[in-house]
Amino acid sequence: MENPLLLFPQLNISASKDKPYYKVMKSAIKEEPHKASKSGAKQKRNRLSLLLQKPEFHEGDHLGKPGNLTKAASVSPEEAEKWGESFDKLLSEKAGLDAFTKFLKTEFSEENIEFWIACEDYKKSKSAHELLPKAKTIFETFIQKDAPKEVNLDFHTKAVTSQSMGQPLRSTFDAAQSTVYRLMEQDSYPRFLRSAPYLSLLQGRPPARALLRRRSRSFTVSDFQSVRPDLTVW
After folding, report:
1. Where are the domains of the chain?
2. InterPro entries in the record, alphabetically (predicted)?
3. CA 125 to chain centre
4. Is 77-203 a CATH 3.40.50.2300 domain?
């Protein structure tokens, strides 16, 4: 039997050495009914959010500890400026990915970047027998109806992904990952570039403490068709 600690080594949301992230998510999913009402789904997500905020679920988690991302203060203004060149450049840098993840947490939309990271890890699976359990966990955590950290996907993308779950391939989540990537690139990324913490980094100051904001309405790909994002840093 394969070591479950290898399933999601890069999500950085592990509970402890004997409680990896995928086990936490599978346990939370199992305890919740799948035929919940909309209000029930919201309560489920709230309970999961509170669960993941407990200290024991963040040992060694550089994304989970309050204030740890202020380490981004060591990022030079020149490096931070490169993050504004492209969304891909931001995600390719560890410090940039950390800073963006912290920003999404202030908007209560961190499930998007967590899903993207999970997909990146999934595609690096070394053997075919790893794909099925990983795919099932990703699907139950982020994609199926009323999933605890459900991402916003259009009907077609969700249907195509669902159909491939019987025999998942490394490309199973490519369409869904691309959709979430575009939504972050065109919605959250421009706001990140205008945020106080990012502007502080550009000026060589410690990141300003970000205020939590209400989650904005959910967007779909159609919202951004023929729209060119404004990436101007004010």
Report:
1. 77-203
2. RGS (IPR016137), RGS_sf (IPR036305), RGS_subdom1/3 (IPR024066), RGS_subdomain_2 (IPR044926)
3. 19
4. no
Given this model, what pLDDT does residue 128 score?
A: 86
Q: Which of 186, 203, 201, 191 is nearest to 152 (CA)?
A: 186
Beta bridge partners of 16: 19
Block mean pLDDT (10 aa), the chain, length 234: 46 42 48 47 51 39 40 80 97 96 96 98 92 96 96 96 94 97 98 96 72 47 42 40
What pLDDT, on a 0 to 100 scale, did the predictor assign at position 125?
93
- CA nearest to 31, candidates 5, 151, 23: 23
131 contacts 125 by C-beta, under 8 angstroms: yes
- Is the whole model's pTM more than 0.70, yes or no? no
Q: Phi/psi of residue 118, each to 5°?
A: -60, -40
Residue holding tokens 């963040």?
Answer: 58
Closest CA to 102 of 174, 209, 199: 209
DSSP per-residue string spanning 133-190: HHHHHHIIIIISTT-TT-----HHHHHHHHHTTSS--TTTTHHHHHHHHHHIIIIIHH
pLDDT tens readout for residues 180-210: 999 999 999 999 999 999 999 999 876 555 5
Residues 210/101, Cβ–Cβ less than 8 Å: no
What is the Cα–Cα distance from 197 to 209, expressed in whole angstroms? 7
DSSP helix, strand, coil percent of the chain (3-state; round to 5): 60, 0, 40
Assigned token pair, 215: 């989650």
